[in-house]
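User: Protein folding is very new to me. Would you mind checking the protein record under this note? It all follows right here:
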Amino acid sequence: MIGGQAKLAADTAARGPQLDQARPNSTHLKTETLRRKVSLGFQAGDCLRYEFTQKRTVELDLRDLAANASGRPVTSGRVRVEQRGELLVKIYEERPGDDGGWIVGFELQRPFIKMSAPDAQQASASQDFSKVMAGEILAFVERNGRIGKFIALPSMSADALNQWKDILARWQVVLADDPSATRWTRREEDTTGIYLATYVRQPGSPTQIIKTKTTYIEVRTANQSTLNGTSKITGSTVIMLNPHPVRIAGQESVQLASRGLGPNVYSESEFVFQLLHSGFRTDIAQAGPGKAAQWAAAPASLPWSAQPSPSGDAILITPGTGAAVARAHIAGLAELLARGGAESPEEQKFMEKLYDAVKADDGAVEAIMDQLGRPDCSKEMASVLIGVLGAAGTEMAQHSLLSMVADANWPREQREMSVFSFAQVQQPIAGVEAALQALHAEQGPY
């Protein structure tokens, strides 16, 4: 059984070789972050060294699968995975601009990857992970912290690449577009699939953020095929920023129930990234141009997130632009409502534009959820935005509505609106009916 949160809070002692000099102007990091508004505060030449540990237990329940295949019962299989090492984060180059970021190298020094299972042969084979993890992952980290395209050595095995995806997904922190936001929702990806994550900045503590996975939108198997089923996630991650991550510690339990021919999966994880040292290294800064050229020359077919591909000129809002388009429409809608324009033809036009943005790009849903999470979001604004999500009815929109209904921290009125908005949904996603029935049995959030 995995230990409690108190165990995760234990500080690790700083160790490992010191960097060659302190970062220039390091005392002004917070001021620089505020000036840039949304940023992790990295600079070219920075090197961050983390103590990383993760313990995970994964159980595959094959009984339903065996019954479908042969009618004979099969016991469940349990695997325990332990990962540890020193994660080196090297900032090679900074790309300026609002849509800029950093070319970053990730390297796991002194890696130790151990898997234990009843099958001794599996446990023996897992020892190779400690060796194949050698080498550097090169990635583009956007200014808000989202990891974009990344590349690895051609010699790196698929198993090692999955280990890296798991580590990077744990380390990734995606900040809000608005630095004053206290709650925001983002679409992210890990080795299990694509999920929604809710971030909450603690009141009075702008450097502490709680990240919670709410649901998996898409679950994928080892061969990247989609698994039809439902998910239940508990646990959270505590993130300390100053302004870059200085500590990330979390616990997580995931239950994936498949429909049809497929295993049920149960996993429990606890993980910690503890910053041991940060500073400036001349060799990293000098290697920046070469690393940036290497990253730019790599094929664009290695994205971190499985974003939908543009389908020609018919879609004017292409993936990646929906959030900006939605924010512009929301700003215009706010001005209209401030002038008393509720229920006017102009309001209807804004609703139609937001509807189109949500249908075209999931980023528009993130922008809407950001606005709904603002303390100054009016009832009129919330009614329009939640209505748009229900009318559009995309998977992302429905998952976002469900996350609001299930989370008691959202305002009561918004949760009620979210329930009623499902009356507009023409193709409910799996789990909606069961979730609403469960809420009705509990007398709902209202």
Q: What stands out?
A: Residues 1-36, 65-75, 122-127, 301-317 have pLDDT under 50 and may be disordered. The longest helix spans residues 322-338. The first strand starts at residue 46 and ends at 61.
